[in-house]
Specification:
The complex is a heterodimer of chains A (113) and B (116). Chain A is mainly β. Chain A is built from no helices and 11 strands. The chains are: A mainly beta (113), B mainly beta (116). The interface between A and B is medium-sized, with 29 and 29 residues.
């Protein structure tokens, strides 16, 4: 089965600083999804990456999928308190018609004013 | 557009008792998922429905967990009898059917279950 490892497990960053979260897979990633979760709430979709070398941005968040499609990074520029939460990467098994996601263990991000 | 609704939001029960969770997906979403998220871990898929049929329930502990999606809309997840290790947040998600893999899933707020 596919395993996703996220690093770091937790991150404390001063407001305004940049940060990066990594997601590494034991197998080739056919689809890589980034979600954000706030305490007591469900997951919110951020971005989806499918092609090797692909990069997507939304506001101050940029996600990349490496050429070999086994690692993804999520980069936040000039962090704000609203960025605090748990970031989860999820991987698609790659069999079209089987829409099952396997999630990593998450990275807890804390922003210090 | 209304999001995925779940109830109750919180539930505390004693071990060996029964509990049921309810989910109402986004209108028009054919695929519905139930996930279990234990504290400090990522969500783990328990069961996936497409319309009212089960697509994947390989990780559902069938001796105590059951789920149904009658009429292909609302769904209920039941635990009977509950164990201490069932304490977790139970998340429901829905998505449109897509030919390009999992696609974007929309999550409800979850039900936090505490088994004492």
């Amino acid at each position: 089965s596919q395993e996703l490892e996220q690093s770091p497990q937790s991150l404390i960053v001063q407001e305004g600083k940049n940060l990066t979260i990594n997601c590494t897979s034991s197998k080739t990633l056919y689809g890589l999804y980034w979600y954000k979760q706030k305490y007591g709430e469900g997951l919110i979709f951020l971005m989806m990456l499918q092609k090797g070398g692909e990069e997507k941005s939304h506001e101050k968040i940029t996600a990349k999928l490496d050429e070999k499609k086994q690692q993804s990074s999520l980069h936040i520029t000039a962090s704000q308190p609203s960025h605090a939460g748990i970031y989860l990467c999820g991987a698609d098994k790659g069999n079209f018609g089987n829409e099952k996601l396997t999630f990593g263990t998450g990275t807890r991000l804390t922003i210090i004013p | 557009e209304a999001g995925v609704a779940q109830s109750p939001r919180y539930k505390i029960i004693e071990k060996r008792q029964s509990v049921a969770f309810w989910c109402n997906p986004i209108s028009g979403h054919a695929t519905l998922y139930w996930y279990q998220q234990i504290l400090g871990q990522g969500p783990k898929l328990l069961i996936q429905f497409q319309n009212n049929g089960v697509v994947d329930d390989s990780q559902l502990p069938k001796d105590r967990f059951s789920a149904e999606r009658l009429k292909g809309v609302d769904s209920t997840l039941k635990i009977q009898p509950a164990k201490l290790e069932d304490s977790a947040v139970y998340l429901c998600a829905s998505s449109l059917v897509t030919q390009q893999g999992a696609g974007e899933q929309y999550f409800g707020p979850g039900t936090r279950l505490t088994v004492t």
